[in-house]
């Protein structure tokens, strides 16, 4: 049976890096971890297609936001050049500095592909969950 | 009781809310024994065919197989429909349930000489609705539903309705107690609600 330990470790590190970059507000660097055709499904909102569309959404809504983000990987599967990561996330969000902090809990599915030796996010689905359930 | 299979991706809330709105009793579960005992099963879309491997690992695949063989009603949504087929080129090493023959394939890059954008996202119509479809009872040809997907199921004898995008693909599949919709009924306004209502009332 193929051992995917090194790929899993690499992907876990990517998840941590993505989290750190988002907390830092470094949107450009976080999106560089995504494929050009990255797809993002956020709850019932229309699907965002392409890195640029996702960046535009973040810029337009969260340009001045302050994020806190933590996560837990519930399941990580690697199959060849594909990886699927089931995660839970806890997020705090201040739309602007000085405003009230909002708390969110999410479930997120990340799909990654290894291209030319580099794992890239190709698709993500994130859904809000009741805080009490987490 | 409708067992709504939770395979960790979390896009359950809208489906469950819609089922509750229709008066259905639901139980969100990862437990194969709950699936076996349910009167109906709903498998929501998870976003990627590879993620359906979890169903096999949790023992849900065999539970679903037993349940549908016993006549339990099953509804797969989006990738949940695709999973009813033998597999998908999206994750070639992951087997589907194989209830319907054929494999799901990505939309072609071009159609009739023109570029075809993928994923297929947005509202599109249901056409060629099979008259004997119980799931689509009361839904007229041309009814609009909401899609978001890059892979599509082939046309098979169990296809109950098609949608045109880069050629016709299976929008709804139905044979006896096993049904699937490629669109998202929970996002598809009145037509989507009618489909879920039909399923709840079967």
UniProtKB/TrEMBL annotation, chain A:
- Pfam families per UniProt: SnoaL_3
Q: Which GO terms describe its molecular function?
A: isomerase activity
Concerning InterPro entries, the annotation shows: NTF2-like_dom_sf, SnoaL-like
Q: Give the UniProt keywords, A-Z.
A: Isomerase
Start and end residues of each SnoaL-like domain: 11-122
Q: Has keyword Protease?
A: no
The identity of this protein, by name, is Ketosteroid isomerase homolog
Which species expresses this protein natively? Granulicella rosea
Automatic annotation (TrEMBL), chain B:
Query: What residue stretches are annotated with the Glutamine amidotransferase domain?
Result: 4-200
Q: Extract one GO BP annotation from the record.
A: L-histidine biosynthetic process
- Which Gene Ontology MF annotations are present? glutaminase activity; imidazoleglycerol-phosphate synthase activity; lyase activity
Output the Gene3D superfamilies linked to this UniProt entry. Answer: 3.40.50.880
User: SUPFAM superfamilies, per this entry?
Assistant: Class I glutamine amidotransferase-like
One Pfam family, short name please? GATase
**Catalytic activity as recorded in UniProt:** 5-[(5-phospho-1-deoxy-D-ribulos-1-ylimino)methylamino]-1-(5-phospho-beta-D-ribosyl)imidazole-4-carboxamide + L-glutamine = D-erythro-1-(imidazol-4-yl)glycerol 3-phosphate + 5-amino-1-(5-phospho-beta-D-ribosyl)imidazole-4-carboxamide + L-glutamate + H(+); L-glutamine + H2O = L-glutamate + NH4(+)
Which keywords, in A-to-Z order, does the entry hold?
Amino-acid biosynthesis, Cytoplasm, Glutamine amidotransferase, Histidine biosynthesis, Hydrolase, Lyase, Transferase
Pathway note: Amino-acid biosynthesis; L-histidine biosynthesis; L-histidine from 5-phospho-alpha-D-ribose 1-diphosphate: step 5/9
Q: Cellular component per GO?
A: cytoplasm
> What PROSITE patterns does the database record attribute to this sequence?
GATASE_TYPE_1
Q: Its domain of life?
A: Bacteria
Location(s), subcellular: Cytoplasm
Q: Which residues form the active site?
A: 78 (nucleophile), 184, 186
Enzyme Commission code(s) on record: 4.3.2.10, 3.5.1.2
The subunit structure is: Heterodimer of HisH and HisF.
- Report the NCBIfam families cross-referenced here: IMP_synth_hisH (TIGR01855)
Function field? IGPS catalyzes the conversion of PRFAR and glutamine to IGP, AICAR and glutamate. The HisH subunit catalyzes the hydrolysis of glutamine to glutamate and ammonia as part of the synthesis of IGP and AICAR. The resulting ammonia molecule is channeled to the active site of HisF.
Q: List the HAMAP family hit by this protein, alphabetically.
A: HisH (MF_00278)
Q: Which PANTHER family does the UniProt entry name for this protein?
A: IMIDAZOLE GLYCEROL PHOSPHATE SYNTHASE SUBUNIT HISH (PTHR42701:SF1)
Q: State what protein this is by name.
A: Imidazole glycerol phosphate synthase subunit HisH
Species in which this protein is naturally found? Granulicella rosea
């Amino acid at each position: 049976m193929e051992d995917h330990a090194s790929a899993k470790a690499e992907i876990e590190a990517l998840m941590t890096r993505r989290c750190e970059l988002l907390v830092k507000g470094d949107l450009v660097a976080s999106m560089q971890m995504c494929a050009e055709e990255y797809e993002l499904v956020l709850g019932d909102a229309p699907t965002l297609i392409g890195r640029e569309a996702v960046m535009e959404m973040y810029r337009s809504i969260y340009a001045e936001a302050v994020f806190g983000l933590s996560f837990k990987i519930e399941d990580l599967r690697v199959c060849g050049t594909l990886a699927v990561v089931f995660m839970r996330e806890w997020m705090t969000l201040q739309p602007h500095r000085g405003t009230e902090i909002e708390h969110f809990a999410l479930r997120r599915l990340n799909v990654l592909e290894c291209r030319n030796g580099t794992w890239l996010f190709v698709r993500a689905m994130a859904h809000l969950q009741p805080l009490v359930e987490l | 009781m409708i067992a709504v299979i939770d395979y960790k991706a979390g896009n359950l809330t809208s489906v469950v809310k819609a089922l509750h709105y229709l008066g259905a009793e639901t139980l969100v579960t990862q437990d194969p024994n709950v699936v076996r005992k349910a009167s109906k099963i709903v498998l929501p879309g998870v976003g990627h065919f590879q993620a359906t491997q979890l169903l096999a690992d949790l023992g849900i695949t065999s539970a679903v197989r037993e349940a549908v063989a016993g006549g339990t009603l099953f509804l797969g949504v989006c990738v949940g429909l695709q999973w009813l087929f033998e597999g998908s080129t999206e994750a070639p090493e992951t087997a589907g349930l194989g209830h319907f023959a054929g494999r799901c394939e990505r939309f072609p890059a071009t159609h009739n000489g023109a570029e075809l954008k993928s994923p297929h996202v947005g509202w599109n119509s249901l056409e060629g609705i099979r008259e004997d479809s119980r799931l689509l009872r009361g839904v007229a040809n041309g009814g609009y539903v909401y899609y978001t997907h890059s892979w599509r199921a082939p046309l098979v004898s169990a296809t109950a309705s098609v949608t045109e995008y880069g050629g016709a693909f299976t929008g709804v599949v139905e044979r006896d107690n096993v049904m699937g919709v490629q669109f998202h009924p929970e996002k598809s306004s009145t037509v989507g609600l009618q489909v879920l209502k039909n399923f709840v009332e079967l």
